[in-house]
């Protein structure tokens, strides 16, 4: 009798424990955000135009101008080669699960989405990779397809070439090249994009162990593929916008690609309806773009919060490891310097409208999200938030391959509480400079017409892809960020001054002298750089976080800290703010190679 009672107690204790899944040791998942793929070698289906001929290789390509690239926060052309190199690198590491958290295309154009699908199909077939995507604001510019035009393709003799989906969608300039008309350059909406990318998470597949959406009427215990296929129809995956009769599609899903791992794809695109509506069905012009992200979700897509809670709770009950991803950040990505940035630059500058409110982080942490991979901002960053209820959210911002610093992330799952994240920089890229002969022609044309905003030709001397993206950022700062974001008076007070001028701008300089001496530095060291150098390095740190430290150098960073300490004592309020912003940007959470301990809600840097 005693033996039977003991046996029953043991059985009851086993049944009451949290279910444990058999997870292959050290599962790895790669995250590549903001690919912004433009298929530069694609052929249009309805037009014989091939692009322009490379004067060196003889190969035809459809590329955007260098001038356009250097005024954009992303590279348009060379990232094509960087994406291929990243996939090859992932394949060499034996990683089979790859996540693309949105903005996988240039602007959702048919020609580029088809091109991406062909690449992913190839790596799926030849390398055994599985891809999981979610929507970004550039994949569905609006929820429904719309006509579109790009005026900045590179054309004959280095001139700009208009390519448009409609003859009435642009204004032709005098002496301009004849516009190219093709439906392949329009912006697809959800329906078309999801159908083209159906095999990459948007719809259930035979190989998935489980798949559902916020609208599914089945659960894990009664799942079967045929039912999931029926429920995956896009017309069943719609929500009604609050206080309207408008309905929009939602691409969210959760999938179990390998036993014990759930990938939660949150469609955080929020299209806010205009005050005045056309009354026409599926009119893209009735909605704003979706670039704001989560700050609009609580009002317009609250159904997703409830679903996320349900998924997180079910994952906990069934012993699944839940990894969430979406296009947008859930946590402040400015190293908590956003308040000072707003004071110095204004709330409508420095992409501050995209910073998620604290309510977003608190909401998703309490909903059960512990690890989330985001994109959108083209930056490398880690944000951590713990709620009053004791729930902690780790938001991992994945850099873009189309910007400085070009990189992707690898998540290694050691156990249900032990996770490792490593950032892989894509520095050497075959053919990254193969398009440079085109830009030589463009530069000659800009010289000929005496352009007032001509770019620095030194970029064409870049030795590798990483250096090319660094040049891209430097020119972006000079040509766009300085004139658009920086207050003129503040810029005058810092831009051309040396570090020495800035450090010794106050009367009391004894602290500066003492700190320099104790650091083994001199006044001449501070005099070797200007305010522009400091601004550029601020952007390097803002974009790449600790990945930029080797590029800047420890000595220069120490000099910046000394100057900032002096500026904090300034009578100039803007210089005080600048110093606080810079110091916060230097000191953030680990963002290169680190470990996340969910048992103790800790994050620790892994030193090389």
Describe what you observe in this structure.
With 608 residues, this protein is of the alpha/beta class. Helix content is 35%, strand content 16%. It has a seven-stranded mixed beta sheet with strand order 5-4-1-18-19-20-21. It has a seven-stranded mixed beta sheet with strand order 9-12-13-14-15-17-16. A three-stranded mixed beta sheet has the order 6-7-8. The N and C termini lie far apart (59 Å).
Major sheet summary line: 7 strands, mixed
Write down the oligomeric state: single chain
Largest sheet: spatial strand order: 5-4-1-18-19-20-21
End-to-end span in angstroms? 59 Å
Helix content: 25-40%
- Secondary structure: number of strands: 21
- Helix tally? 21
Shape: globular
Measured by DSSP, the beta-strand proportion falls in 15-25%
Structural class: alpha/beta
What is the radius of gyration?
26 Å
Q: Poorly predicted ranges (pLDDT <50, ≥5 residues)?
A: 1-18
The residue-averaged pLDDT reads 94
